[in-house]
Write a sequence for this structure.
């Protein structure tokens, strides 16, 4: 079976860490499920694709044990977890039947899998158009203009801020296309410019503490600071996306002027994306 579109995606964007995968040496490391899935793993492999937005694993991996343990706890004995979408909301599943090629998504909050495609081949070949994200990919490429980025980092040093408050209750985004997605926490920040700056956007790293994913529960919020008057404390209310949607204890502002340019998360900083 020829996984042409997926192979082309790996050839185009796969030499920088955006995709990280390995060939499977033995099919004994695979569960006895969809023939199309087995052929994909033999032809392509398993690993982390699209900057972690799609992860596939074998029965030898720790993730396989953990996700399938959760399936058993929910009495989903006819299914096998084969991957997930980089969050902890659920997993991708296949039936324990080689002739059944349907792909299912198991959301832990729902309690039972539902079919998302009747063919693994069709589903995985559509993955490049579904999962590819140019903004995320920029975080894996060589930096184009380091001098301009260093200039912006110096401009970020002119900003002081603190988190004044946050609401734990998730709300929808006022944007028309996102208004049904209740995945945002309202937060209130106090911003002080110590002097005039030449940047319009400021991106801030936020940590949700006390969740089951620990220090990985990170999200970023970007605010418009262009019209803030220097030396005048300014309150800004904004929405912080919750990518994990897990119970947490608190939100901590981890703002720092410096940007870790060695991390793929550098692409989350809107003020430097032009120069990546």
């Amino acid at each position: 079976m020829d996984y042409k579109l997926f192979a082309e995606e790996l050839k185009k964007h796969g030499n920088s860490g955006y995709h990280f995968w390995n060939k499977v040496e033995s099919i004994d490391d695979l569960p006895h499920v969809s023939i199309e899935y087995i052929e994909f793993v033999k032809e392509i492999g398993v690993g982390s694709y699209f900057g972690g937005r799609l992860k596939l694993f074998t029965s030898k991996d720790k993730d396989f044990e953990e996700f399938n343990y959760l399936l058993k706890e929910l009495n989903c004995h006819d299914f096998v977890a084969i991957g997930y979408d980089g969050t902890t909301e659920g997993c991708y599943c296949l039936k324990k039947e080689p002739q059944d090629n349907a792909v299912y998504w198991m959301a832990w909050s729902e309690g039972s899998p539902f079919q998302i495609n009747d063919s693994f081949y069709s589903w995985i070949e559509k993955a490049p158009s579904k999962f590819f994200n140019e903004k995320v990919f920029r975080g894996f490429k060589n930096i184009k203009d380091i001098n301009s980025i260093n200039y912006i980092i110096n401009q970020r040093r002119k900003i002081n801020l603190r988190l004044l408050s946050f609401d734990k209750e998730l709300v929808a985004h006022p944007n028309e296309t996102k208004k049904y997605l209740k995945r945002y926490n309202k937060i209130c920040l106090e911003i002080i410019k110590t002097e005039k700056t030449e940047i319009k956007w400021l991106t801030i790293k936020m940590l949700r503490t006390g969740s089951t994913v620990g220090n990985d529960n990170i999200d970023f919020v970007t605010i418009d600071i262009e019209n803030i008057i220097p030396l005048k404390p300014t309150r800004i209310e904004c929405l912080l996306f919750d990518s994990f949607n897990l119970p947490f204890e608190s939100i901590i502002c981890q703002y720092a002027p410096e940007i870790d340019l060695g991390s793929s998360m550098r692409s989350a900083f809107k003020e430097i994306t032009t120069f990546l």
